[in-house]
Specification:
- With about 325 residues, the chain is of the alpha/beta class.
- It folds into two domains: about 210 residues, 3-Layer(aba) Sandwich (Rossmann fold); about 100 residues, Rossmann fold.
- The protein is about 50% helix and about 15% strand.
- Helix 4 packs parallel to helix 5 and helix 8 runs parallel beside helix 10.
């Protein structure tokens, strides 16, 4: 069970290792959307993505437990298409242990290079969840590594929650947000965002964005059980993962709605941020803004916070 105290402890644990990213506004985007927008640019975070928060909290928490018993933390492992891979590699370096990262062979080269740069080993696999999980099992059997799951872990979720916590503290206390938006892949960020919003800004609604080409979360949210996407084909490579029972449970309790957008709409929103805000975000990060622009009558006149999740984009494969 994640409580407000759990999230506060996570924030205290990781504070020295992360940036407190700023809150950005943009008059042009406000005018285009008719919405009072506040952006949390986690593309400016360590490793270039919010995932640093959850990865650090999980690894540092494990390290604390081991030190309590007089032991040094052994190797850690995970599977990820990129940003969580970097987060675990970065966190492992911070505590002086080894990380073994199982990555799909199709993962962006910029993310693979970053993982290697943090000193981790990469084990490539086919781009399926089954292959990723099999790869992690092999690593655990061979090395004795501890799994840091990308999202099905309360320590990871509590760490991810700190992004929305900062957003609310920095821009949503005097006049609370009407809505906070985040993208959804495996649901770790969305779960953490929904939980901390429930605790400290209970009147604020949480709305998720999802690509049409990886639309499992919206099906799961409606049916109440973990569903598979009808097909997977999207430029938002960070959002291709299915939910877990854990994240679906948190979402069903505290998320208001999930809305989908096409790749063309994602690319247009991404380009808009590059051109108007002068910051680099990856396709997954553009999904909530794309949802807002597509459904702007639903948000018109409201105060909306958007978590821009990361900026680790392959510059050789831009959608524009």
């Amino acid at each position: 069970m994640i409580l407000l105290e759990t999230i506060q402890a996570a924030h205290d644990r990781i504070r020295a290792h992360i940036h407190r990213t700023p809150v950005l506004t943009n008059r042009t985007l406000n005018g285009l959307s008719g919405v009072d927008l506040y952006f949390k640019p986690e593309n400016l975070q360590k490793i270039g993505a919010f995932k640093a928060r959850g990865g650090l909290n999980a690894v540092l928490h494990l390290s604390e437990q081991e030190r309590y018993h007089g032991r040094t933390l052994g190797p850690v492992t995970t599977h990820s298409s990129g940003n969580h891979a970097q987060a675990v590699a970065f966190a492992a370096r911070q505590v002086g242990t080894m990380a073994y990262i199982v990555m799909p062979r199709t993962a962006p080269e910029v993310k693979k290079e970053a993982v290697l740069g943090y000193g981790a080993d990469i084990i490539e696999c086919e781009p399926t969840l089954e292959a990723r999980e099999a790869g992690v099992r092999e690593v655990m059997e061979r090395t004795g590594a501890t799994l840091i799951h990308p999202f099905d872990d309360d320590r990871v979720i509590a760490g991810q929650a700190t992004a929305a916590k900062e957003l609310i503290e920095d821009a949503g206390l005097d006049k609370p947000f009407d809505v906070i938006m985040a993208p959804v892949g495996g649901g770790g960020l969305l779960s953490g965002t929904a939980l901390v919003t429930h605790f400290i800004s209970p009147r604020t609604r949480v709305v998720a964005g999802e690509p049409e080409g990886a639309a499992d979360a919206i099906l799961s949210f409606k049916s109440g059980k973990v569903e598979k996407a009808p097909f997977i084909k999207t430029i938002a490579d960070g959002l291709m993962t299915s939910l877990s029972e854990r994240t679906l449970g948190y979402m069903r309790e505290h998320v208001t709605d999930i809305l989908t957008v096409s790749d063309a709409e994602i690319g247009a929103a991404m380009r808009l941020v590059w051109e108007r805000m002068k910051i680099i975000i990856e396709p997954s990060a553009a999904v909530p803004l794309a949802v807002l622009l597509k459904n702007n009558e639903r948000f018109a006149g409201q105060k909306v916070g958007i978590i821009l999740t990361g900026g680790n984009v392959d510059l050789g494969k831009l959608p524009f």
